[in-house]
């Protein structure tokens, strides 16, 4: 069982930055691919970014590419989402997710965008961007 705890959300003005953290309880953190998703009121959960278990490959939604950066520090059992140039459309609850690496290793990259492929989820952290 893996427990994930997000932190770093808050209120920021448009154009500003935030860094979200996802701390994992699992000592074998390096065995999991990680993803960030978000959900705004009245909308479905949306893929934001993903990173493979080693940290060598990243994936981004078109809406955040060039502005957001996903990373991980396996020694600290933590994943991050650096968010720059935030705009009002980024307002949402952001969720961290972990999935067994074998689920993704030999599959098409698009499955990393599917929330149903992940095994564990954090409680979410609110990000609000004001104009």
Describe this entry's structure for a reader:
- The protein is mainly β and 131 residues long.
- It contains one helix and eleven strands; from the N terminus they run E-E-E-E-E-E-E-E-E-H-E-E.
- Strands 2, 4, 5, 6, 9, 10 and 11 form a seven-stranded mixed sheet that branches.
- The chain starts with a strand and ends with a strand.
- The model has no long low-confidence stretch (mean pLDDT 96).
Ends apart, CA distance between termini:
40 Å
Mean pLDDT, rounded to whole units?
96
The rounded Rg comes to 14 Å
Query: From the helix content, strand content and strand pairing, which structural class follows?
Result: mainly beta
User: Could you list the spans in which at least 5 consecutive residues all have pLDDT below 50?
Assistant: none
Major β-sheet profile: 7 strands, mixed
The level of helicity is under 10%
* Tally of contiguous helical segments: 1
β-strand number: 11
Helix and strand run = EEEEEEEEEHEE
Q: What share of residues are in beta strands?
A: over 45%
C-alpha geometry? globular
